[in-house]
Amino acid sequence: PPPFPAWLAARLDALGLDRAVYGAYIEGLLREEESDEERLEALQAVLAACLEEDLLNDVCREVVERWSDSQVIDAKEEKEDEVQAIASMMEKQARIVVKPKEVSQEEKQRKAALLAQYANVTDEEEYPFPALLKAWAVKGNTSLFRNTNVEDVLNARKLERELLRDEFQKKKEQDKLQREKDKLAKQERKEKEKKRTQKGERKR
């Protein structure tokens, strides 16, 4: 079947309607509406002034059906194009052959020489100062083997504890001073009250 715009143009010509005016408007209207029923109602409202009532319903229904069919065909063609594009891309990728990296004879010899060199390392060459290591071990000097991460964590915790202890001591001293001040103030109030009472008794 011909594409919908071409079919619609021919149908409008047959009805004696201006394809340039009605064609684009009808296509836009069909795209905007969400269901076939809404499209049918909108189309009838547009063409009611141009067509006889008995012809109007048939033409509108035919236009909507053709539109729906064209959308299915378009969607199918788009899907086929998409599948074709994916297949083409996969085919191109399959053609790309990754060549393995060629290792030159010189590189092979250099690697072999290095392996042989490391394989022949003796214990003495690996640890050139065994006597010094033993002396350190006897003295208990294990600084070479310390785990600095663990040491850092422990130091941080120690520092935190010291700071907390300092804060606690300061707070304790402040509370102690405040209690002493409160005690003195209370004592002073008692003394004043006592003196006032004694003065009152003398006046009598």
Can you offer a commentary on this structure?
Pfam families: PWI_CCDC43. This is Coiled-coil domain-containing protein 43. Residues 170-204 are annotated as: Disordered. It is a single chain. The chain is mostly helical and 204 residues long. It has 2 domains: 4-95; 130-203. It contains 8 helices and no strands. Helix 3 packs across helix 4.
Whole-number average pLDDT?
77
Number of strands: 0
Main sheet makeup: none
The ordered H/E elements are HHHHHHHH
Strand content: under 5%
SS element count, helices: 8
Q: Which secondary-structure class do the elements indicate?
A: mainly alpha
Distance between the termini: 130 Å
Topology, please?
Blueprint: H1 4-14, H2 19-32, H3 36-47, H4 53-95, H5 105-119, H6 123-126, H7 130-139, H8 148-203
Helix pairs in contact: 1-2, 2-3, 3-4
Domain CCDC43 PWI-like: 4-71
Region (Disordered): 170-204
Pfam family, one: PWI_CCDC43
Q: Features of this protein?
A:
204 residues; mainly alpha; flat; CCDC43; coiled coil; PWI_CCDC43
Summarize the structure.
With 204 residues, the protein is mostly helical. It contains eight helices and no strands. It has helices at residues 4-14, 19-32, 36-47, 53-95, 105-119, 123-126, 130-139, 148-203.
